[in-house]
Structures are given as C-alpha cells and as structure tokens.
Amino acid sequence: MKLTVFGATGGTGAELIRQAIEAQHDVLAVVRDPARLRAAASPHLHVMTADVMQPAAIQDAVAGRDAVISALGSRNPRAKTTVCADSARSIVTAMRAAGSRRLLVVSGSGAVDAGDSALLRYVGKPAAKLFLKHQFADFRAMEDIVRGSGLNWTIVRPPRLNNRPFTARYQVRRDMNVRGSYVISRADLAAALLAFAADTGSYHAAFGVAR
C-alpha cells in the first residue's frame, strides 16, 4: 500500500512507520521537524516537511495514496487543545481537493462509553474526565469532522497506551470499547491500523482496540 502518516514523530506514528516499512509498504511521513523522526532510513520511507494545519501544504502528500493515517495528538493531554480536530479538518480538506478517499484516525476509548462496564462508566470515566476533559472533547470533535467528511473513514479508539512489545493479541470491537480491557501497546495499535487500512469492511465505522 501507499500510505501517508501524520504524527510520524510520536510513539504510535513511529511504530506504525516501522511496521509499514517492514511490510514493504510505500510510506510518506509528513512532519514539521524531520530531526524528530526516529525511523531508520529505508527505500520504502519518504519524508515531507509540511504543516498539517495548512491544507494546501499537505495536498500533495495525500494525493494518490491508498490510505492516509493520522496518529496526531496533544503532547499534554490535560491542557486545552484542538489539535486532533483542527488537523482532521485540514486533512479532510486536503483529501477532498486531491480526490483521495481512505482516512484512518486515532481517537481514544475515553471519548465514548459504549461497551464499558458499569464500574468504568460510572466511577472510572467520570474521574478520568475531570483530568482529561480537554483531550476527550478534542477526540469527539475530531470524530464528528471525520464522520461528516464523505470519505471512506475509520476511527480507531485505543485505551491507555504503553511501549510494550508487539503481541498481536489485541481485541477489536465495532462501535464500542473493549470491555474489561484498559491498555494496548503502541506496537499492537500500529498493527491494528495497518490491518484496518487494507480492510474495506472497516469503512464508516469506529473500533475499540485493546489487549
């Protein structure tokens, strides 16, 4: 596949690029600062320096690609932010202009309650929302933009992320969170994103993914 990755310098983005290169996909990483890109040099990896918030600047990056994946997020989840929503709006605008169709975005399980246990829904989530309300609001706004984009979109909602090794033993639930599971490694999340990218059955749906 020809893949464009936004958020390539983050933990999930870096793992996504590593796995995509190993699978010999053609990967274009769009970054603001190439010095922060942790990927090893590869003939399968190309780098573009551009501001994701400027649709005209990223139109070439999304043109002619099999899938565009955004793993962007706030560096400080407690701070007020609109980075997910604003970047999604810009990417959608660029994709429409370029005639591209396939978009995947990383959201979060904290933004929705469907599938959660009663304990998590009525005790855990309300507590989390006190500290992460800005991040959750940004996720929900991004999801609204993606759902209204007219593209072949997929929303992926992981819970808490860690840096443990790839296992391939993650669970997937359509339109709900994975009940009783509160963590996933960035490596397993990246594998799920690559699987969804090639799966036409995942169009126009949100998926919870967790260990």
Summarize this, please?
The protein has 211 residues and is α/β, with parallel strands linked by helices. It has helices at residues 11-22, 55-62, 83-98, 118-147, 186-197; strands spanning 2-6, 26-31, 45-49, 67-70, 102-106, 152-157, 160-162, 171-174, 183-185, 205-210. Helices cover 37% and strands 22% of the residues.
Explained architecture:
The chain is an alpha/beta fold and 211 residues long. The protein has a single domain (2-210), classed as NAD(P)-binding Rossmann-like Domain (Rossmann fold, 3-Layer(aba) Sandwich). 37% of the residues lie in helices and 22% in strands. It has helices spanning 11-22, 55-62, 83-98, 118-147, 186-197; strands at 2-6, 26-31, 45-49, 67-70, 102-106, 152-157, 160-162, 171-174, 183-185, 205-210. The strands form two sheets. The chain has an eight-stranded mixed beta sheet, sandwiched between helices. Helix 4 links the parallel strand 5 (102-106) and strand 6 (152-157). Helix 1 (11-22) crosses helix 5. The chain is globular, with a radius of gyration of 16 Å. 45% of the residues are buried.
Write down the CATH topology: Rossmann fold
In terms of structural class, how would the helical and strand content be classed? alpha/beta
Quantity of strands, as a count: 10
How would you describe the shape?
A: globular
Please indicate the count of domains. Answer: 1
* Strand arrangement in the largest pleated sheet: 3-2-1-4-5-6-10-8
CATH H-level superfamily title: NAD(P)-binding Rossmann-like Domain
H-E order: EHEEHEHEHEEEEHE
Q: How would a textbook summarize the main sheet?
A: 8 strands, mixed
> Percent of residues in beta strands?
15-25%
